[in-house]
Amino acid sequence: MTLFELQQESYRRADTALKGSWPPERAMKTAELDAFLDERRYCVLATTTARNRPQARPVAFTVFGDAIWCATVEGGRLRNLRRTPWVSVVIAEGEGDEHRAVVADGPVVLFDDPPTGLLDAWERRFGSRADWAVAWLELRPERLFSYTRA
Q1: Full-model pTM
Q2: What whole-number distance in Å separates Cα of residue 80 and Cα of residue 51?
Q3: What CATH number has the domain bearing residue 81?
Q4: How far, CA to CA in Å, does 74 sit from each of 49, 53, 92, 113, 126?
Q5: Beta bridge partners of 92
Q6: Domain of 141?
Q7: Total structural domains in the chain?
Q8: Closest to 77 measured CA to CA, from 105, 44, 103, 104
Q9: Which residues make Cβ contacts (< 8 Å) with residue 44, sequence separation at least 6?
Q10: CA-CA distance, 144 to 128, in Å (whole number)?
């Protein structure tokens, strides 16, 4: 399922309150969603600490296949994900009526080594390989919503 198809399914399952905050008529269409995710280089990734508190930090990401991928070093984020492999991400730009955003939530799978092609895609996107990464996280969201300018 593509991220756009997931968004459509997410809106079908969404309740009235969520649709009030993230109106379906303001959701990004396929081309805009793909372009937005390609243009943005960083997201805010939220995990859960051992004390059940949220921990949100900006991290680099790339879309590879139909998943959102992040590289990580050893530290609190990786400990959080090993314990509770679930994240929320926010990718946003702009202010007021000019803002656009994507939010996605779901389980992550941790990999010691990236799948074939991901390091090359990362290097094309960021200009360097993420040889420093001790783990890679793959987010295949269970839900995704977007918001675009009027």
Answers
A1: 0.94
A2: 10
A3: 2.30.110.10
A4: 15, 19, 26, 14, 20
A5: 101
A6: 3-147
A7: 1
A8: 44
A9: 56, 57, 58, 59, 89, 90, 91, 92
A10: 29
Token duo for residue 133: 């990464």
* Element of type H or E holding 120: helix 118-126
User: Which residue, 88, 84, 83, is CA-closest to 106?
Assistant: 88
Structure tokens at 41: 């280089």
In a 3-state reduction of DSSP, which class is residue 79? Answer: helix
Do 56 and 44 contact (CB within 8 A), yes or no? Answer: yes
3-class DSSP assignment, residue 135: strand
**Could you give the CA distance from residue 144 to residue 142 in angstroms, rounded to a whole number?**
7
The DSSP H or E segment spanning 59 is strand 54-60
Kindly tell me if the per-residue pLDDT of 150 is higher than 90.
no
pLDDT digits 0-9 by tens, 94-103: 998 889 999 9
Residues in the chain: 150
